[in-house]
Amino acid sequence: MRRRLIVVLVGTTAVVVLAFVLPLALLVRDVARDRAMADADRDASTLFPALAVDESIAALEIAVARTTAGAEDRLIVYLPDDTVVGPDMPLTEEVRRARAEGRAWSGDVPGGAELIVPVLHGDGTVDVVRVLIPSSELNAGVPAAWLSLFLVGGALVGASFIFASRVARSIAAPVAELAAASQRLASGELDTRVAPAGPPEIVEVGSAFNHLAEQVSELLAAEREDVADLAHRLRTPLAALRLQLDQIADDEVRSLLATSADDLARALDRVISEARRRGEADTAHCDLVSVLTGRFEFWSALAEEQDRRVSIKIGPPAFDVQLHEDRLTDALDVVFENIFAHTSEEAGYAVSLAADTDGAELLISDEGAGFATSLAVDRGESTGSTGLGLDIARRSVEAAGGSLSAGAGTAGGALVTMRFPVIRW
What we know:
Elements: H1 2-46, H2 48-52, H3 57-66, H4 68-71, E1 75-78, E2 84-85, H5 93-101, E3 105-109, E4 112-120, E5 126-134, H6 135-138, H7 142-186, H8 200-233, H9 235-245, H10 251-277, E6 286-287, H11 288-305, E7 310-314, E8 320-321, H12 325-342, E9 349-355, E10 359-366, H13 389-399, E11 403-408, E12 414-421
Parallel strand pairs: 7-9
Antiparallel strand pairs: 1-2, 1-5, 3-4, 4-5, 6-8, 9-10, 10-12, 11-12
């Protein structure tokens, strides 16, 4: 934007300068030419009295020598008897025509220009005065004048560049700050604000941005509190459920249900905690290999009961990801739970983790029917469920700087790919 503003302002100034400088340059050239022709005409006119009284050749030569052109051997007088006073130069066609017709002539010739003036006598004879005007006389002072004009024009363009740079900076800098602030706000820095500056319109935009950021912060804060309140209200029926567990006579069933109730309580605590710290930078990290191994073993127990074929292949001994262990656990559980919920009991699944200097890639594939749509990871796009599971997993992986995608595996079933970057300490 700044570059375009500078180009527009400097380009406009350059066009205006050229519109004035070029005509002035041509005018200077014409004025210099007219001045040289006027000087030549004056020198020729100086000889008219001497020619009118029929002075001697010696007196005429003195009169010629006293003129500027004559002193520089640029003035020639052709007398009726073909006597030449001044440099001995042959008659030209223009001189003969002036003698025959009695009309003056001026024009360009090789090396400059000429002025030819006839002087008529009472007896009908004609003297011809010829003045040579070299190019140096025609262009006297023109190069210096042109240089001055173009220096002034260049100075004006340079000044316009400096002015345009300041104007562009006053406009582009606030816009760039707004763009950077928008990026920071989009990345979750909800306390981002700008100092409105620049032209009134951009100041108004900056103020509107600050107001929008305030509204977004307030809405997100209200949303977090609503989620936390909702999760907290679920503790009441959970407490009632725990009381009812005591009425179960079977110790094993009661123990299993109590464990599930404890898991549910911990999940509610995580929901409340995550809702209230959402928007804050997540500095927690965990070992992907350790968490993955634990979740694979957890779900393998259920897979064994259903006679599912399972396999796991882990390359790196350890790999840190910038994600809280609970969030990574939830993301992996979503994928494993989908396998058990949406495939037949005999459908197996495989887990593969590979890592290199760029990051780690986790592949979880199954032998089921696959995803109905490639947009299954988007909220509300998956079928046969609430459409939230894979979206929650995706957002968790993206919070660690990675990505999650869904597609078809080599066996034709579903394939979930998670990519995690290397943590730079």
